[in-house]
UniProtKB/TrEMBL annotation, chains A, B:
Protein name (record): Alkaline phosphatase
CC per GO annotation: fungal-type vacuole membrane
Cofactor: Zn(2+); Mg(2+)
GO terms, molecular function: alkaline phosphatase activity; metal ion binding
InterPro entries membership: Alkaline_phosphatase (IPR001952), Alkaline_phosphatase_AS (IPR018299), Alkaline_phosphatase_core_sf (IPR017850), Ap_crown (IPR042085)
Source species of the chain: Pleomassaria siparia CBS 279.74
């Protein structure tokens, strides 16, 4: 795929599908969207839910409304790691970002542990503006692979340092970072820090000219689009940990922007920052927490993350219609949870107003004396199980495994099944969009089944940048700076 | 989709993806392939199995080989029935064949029970040759919808009558039928008949000029391609029931042709029969028993049916390269079994040499005195469980649910999970192929997510035929001839 065949658009009609050549729809900007842990059943679940809610709520007479991602399907993607048929987000992310098949836990390094450049770094090197927008911690595996190179994904502090440029051999690579993970950027003397040293990455960022945003109020200023405030570079982190699930955001005075709000803001900033330059931008957007809800086997939280992903896909599609010099690809890094819809009726998910994460939070925080009453009056109705039989409530209380029991009960009620709390080996769907002839080329070129390592090569062709140039620069600094794999490090592919 | 926009190929480049118009790659021939019950995980399972076998059998260092269907992915298809989020093969088949959303159990009729023409009948009406090639009984739901119109899929005798033209209002519609279901074509006085009347459909077929083939020897004569022998029309049925699973065919002197052998023969016959005519042919090929192995939760039988489907896809692709005036689409009617690959290692499936259907057959037929010995020496090794611990063998014997226990043990060993013995609601993958500009148009037009009812409209555009003309003719005969829905009829979507 790296051997590119650039031909004029007029020859398109007669290029064979089996040709190794691509007719890259050259563009100034590339938007890459990763719905982490989003499987094929995730989309069917969301589409049927939205369709039923708008069409009489009768699963015996369903009428379908397509969601945004539906309209953009172009192929499928294989996901396996170099050392496992089931990938984690690090290996698949490294494939997406760097075009290299690597091991589970690898962040921007190949199987030998040598650093490999990313498509974001390649774009940066050629003068493009760059952005990362996620709902996980910003130093989680999927964003990490675009601007960090460490042997082990669990090296969160090191990843944060790379991402902001503090210890990245090539300095700051990302002009715009939005998401969670604030605690990794604060020195350990700050009580809300999760670092084990005094490195102050927010201070470093400010010194390097970044605007640092740490709350919703400051984000709203940014979002208003005041030209000076929204100038690049900036970093906005709105939670010490992951951002809240979409289903939970509405339950409290909104402290955090939604993924869609962050995307709107980021694209506006990138567009403005590149208005008068030759080169455009590369941005990676991650709907991060589809995966977390899959690990938790939490159907309603999963559903609302998937709907948000579709809202973002819709916004990006409309954005591209207005900014035609832009191409988008989107694929999950892997499926998560082994979701199947085997007796399916999504309507019971309608009354769910919190994630199982929120349930656990409330349940742990409850310090009253009537645990049964609190469960019945607050937790169960909030989790869509207000009609649970009294004997079942007793059983759940006695069993003392609230999360496991409630997610299983809700899943059963909605006719969905999870086969694992980890990932699965299944292919994922590839989506893409370009307007006019760019879209035409994209669909003709990228229909089919791809290895996850093949996608960044396509982006290289569209933006005319080269990852290999970055790899060379990174390796000029040696390889020991990527650190070592942590023995017994957490295995994210196979458990939560 | 029925409002067609035929424009010259030269305008292709600038047709927007969101346009309602299609640039149909007009062709003489259309090949439609239904891998019944084939879900996305089915393909990953088959690909990883084949790849491992050819690449060192080390799941910790996997190297992927693409299978034929991989290269032909173009989109996804929604499958729901008019009365259920989970479809059966009848409703989804009626959508594929007739373009109409109908109820589970419907065969070529709309929700009101009125007949609707099929794409096969529309092609026949315009002078095309037509064929049905399956591994199920020929009067099973998926082939039935192309040439039968009955209110209930369980009306197997009636369906056989329609398919051969005996009681089809428009006479014989299918020039070539290959598959199983012989017993439905023989009068009840024949001891191998499964009819409840004396209608002799083979005799009727002969009277109408069909060559009738009932065994492998006669098929082999056909396959040799002797021009006179292979002349249309013909019907070849090689088993009173379904054809054997592919995994079982090699265990006995081959009595039945494989799906691939039937496809080779059928395409050669159709091609020869239309060589000197203006109109070409329409053929529906079904890899029928992927679904049956899904219902049975039988991983190795499922795997080998999926590999056979890929072999057929490969053959058809090469056929189209040599016969470029031909377009192919292929999509499953639904997923079956809720298959996920959650701890996946397909290597244990290598030693399996029989389906669970064959296991049951052998176990029922065994009349010796050493049941435990027979289980240990013959059944378990044949089913890939030769290493089962002695205590487990005792448990299985005592439990007396051999099929359920062995499929569960084998599935666990291979790290695959089934969530149901019925169908699921998930989308399925759309594949398509055309050579040169036809393929280019096909991919550009048909990328995306489609309702199953939208596909025959595309075939209408390619062949320039109209289903509505057939519907009009069928309804001129009234509607009572389609019969009534059977109260308490078998629900194929939700159980085997």
């Amino acid at each position: 795929m790296r051997s590119t065949l650039l031909v004029s658009a007029s020859t398109l009609l007669f290029v064979s599908s089996t040709s190794a050549g691509f007719i890259f729809p050259t563009a100034r900007n590339f938007i890459y969207i990763v719905p982490d842990g989003y499987g094929q059943s995730s989309q069917t679940m969301a589409r049927d839910y939205v369709s039923l809610l708008r069409n009489g709520e009768n699963p015996k007479a369903p009428v379908t409304i397509q969601l945004a991602a539906d309209k953009l399907v172009i192929g499928t993607v294989r996901t396996q790691a170099s050392d496992n048929l089931i990938t984690d987000s690090a290996a698949s992310g490294t494939a997406f970002a760097c075009g290299v098949k690597s091991y589970n836990n690898a962040i921007g390094v190949d199987p030998s542990g040598a650093p490999v450049g990313s498509i974001l770094e390649a774009a940066k090197l050629q003068g493009f503006k760059t952005g990362l927008v996620v709902t996980s911690t910003i130093n989680h595996a999927t964003p990490a692979v675009y601007a960090a190179h460490v042997a082990d994904r669990n090296s969160y502090e090191k990843i944060a340092e790379h991402e902001i440029g503090y210890s990245h051999p090539l300095g700051p690579q990302v002009d715009l970072l939005l998401g969670g993970g604030r605690c990794y950027f604060k020195p350990m003397s700050d009580p809300t820090s999760c670092r084990k040293d005094e490195i102050d990455l927010f201070k470093y960022a400010k010194d390097k000219g970044f605007r640092v945003i740490q709350d919703r109020a400051a984000f709203d200023e940014l979002k208003k689009g005041n030209a000076k405030v929204a100038e690049l570079p900036y970093i906005g982190l709105f939670n010490d940990d992951q951002l809240m699930y979409e289903i939970d955001r509405s339950r409290v005075p909104a402290k955090e922007p939604s993924l869609l709000q962050m995307v709107e803001t980021a694209l506006t900033s990138l567009d403005r920052a590149t208005k008068s330059s030759i080169k455009g931008y590369f941005i990676m957007i991650e709907a991060s927490r589809i995966d977390h809800a899959g690990h938790a086997n939490d159907p309603a939280a999963h559903l609302h993350e998937v709907i948000m992903y579709n809202d973002v896909m819709n916004y990006v599609r409309e954005w591209i219609d207005k900014h035609s010099d832009t191409v988008m690809l989107s694929a999950a890094d892997h499926e998560c949870g082994g979701l199947t819809l085997n007796g399916f009726n999504p309507l019971p998910l309608k009354s769910v107003s919190m994630s199982i994460e929120e349930v656990s939070r409330l349940w742990s925080a409850y310090n009253g004396t009537d645990r049964r009453g609190y469960l019945s009056s607050t937790i169960l109705p909030g989790y869509g199980l207000g009609d649970l039989a009294s004997s079942e409530v007793d059983r759940v209380l006695a069993n003392n495994k609230l999360s496991t029991d409630l997610t299983a009960l809700l899943s059963k009620k909605a006719g969905v099944n999870w086969s694992t709390s980890g990932h699965t080996a299944s292919d994922v769907i590839l989506h893409g969009y370009g307007s006019g002839w760019r879209g035409q080329n994209l669909r003709a070129d990228m229909a089919g089944n791809w290895d996850n390592t093949q996608l960044p090569g396509y982006i290289e062709g569209v933006l005319k940048v080269q990852i290999s140039k970055v790899t060379k620069l990174l390796r000029a600094k040696g390889t020991s700076w990527v650190g070592k794999r942590e023995a017994g490090g957490k295995d994210h592919a196979h458990s939560h």
